[in-house]
């Protein structure tokens, strides 16, 4: 425990609340931290609406919200990030592009896509999800209905 505290102090992390501290200590694997500019990161309301939509899409298809999430990440989110994030494109093209569709769908379960997006990218992602499913006859919850 002392070593963990030393590392936190060394990396200048501020003490977490008790719930976050408990969660962190329970992790069996490495926990990677990524600095994110509050001005650029997608918003909590965007994230919440995406998960409402995942539930609606999953129900529409007779699948889980998690399956819908992976589908949207792969079919809609990946192209957005590949177009705008050179590092993401390089890694995706080298390691994931050669895989089958089913393998890619499984891979995006553990690969960050939408969480890497800026607010404008998340807006584009959401706009494209909304349009994609409207074309299939599914009317997703509108952002203004979420409030």
Could you report the average pLDDT, rounded to the nearest whole number?
A: 81
Q: Low-confidence parts, pLDDT < 50 over ≥5 residues?
A: 1-13, 35-39
Shape: globular
Helix count from the secondary structure assignment: 7
H and E order: HHHHHHH
Q: How many E-type strands?
A: 0
**End-to-end distance:** 43 Å
Portion in strands: under 5%
Task: Give me the oligomer status.
Answer: single chain
Q: How many separate domains make up the residues?
A: 1
User: What composes the largest sheet?
Assistant: none
Give a written overview of the molecule.
This protein is an all-alpha fold and 147 residues long. It has one domain (44-146). The protein is 61% helix and 0% strand. The protein has helices spanning 2-10, 18-26, 44-61, 65-84, 86-96, 101-107, 119-134. The longest helix is centred in the middle third of the chain and has 20 residues, at 65-84. 19% of the residues are buried. The model is unreliable at 1-13 and 35-39 (pLDDT under 50).
């Amino acid at each position: 425990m002392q070593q963990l505290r030393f590392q936190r102090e060394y990396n200048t992390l501020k003490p977490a609340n008790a719930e976050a501290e408990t969660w962190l200590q329970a992790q069996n694997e490495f926990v990677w931290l990524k600095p994110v500019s509050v001005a650029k990161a997608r918003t909590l309301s965007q994230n919440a609406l995406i998960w409402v939509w995942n539930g609606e899409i999953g129900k529409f298809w007779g699948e889980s919200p998690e399956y819908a999430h992976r589908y949207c990440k792969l079919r809609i989110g990946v192209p957005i990030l590949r177009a705008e994030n050179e590092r993401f494109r390089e890694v995706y093209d080298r390691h994931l592009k050669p895989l089958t569709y089913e393998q890619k769908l499984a891979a995006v379960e553990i690969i960050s896509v939408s969480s890497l997006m800026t607010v404008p990218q998340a807006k584009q992602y959401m706009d494209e999800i909304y349009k994609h499913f409207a074309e299939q006859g599914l009317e997703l919850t509108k952002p203004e209905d979420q409030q």
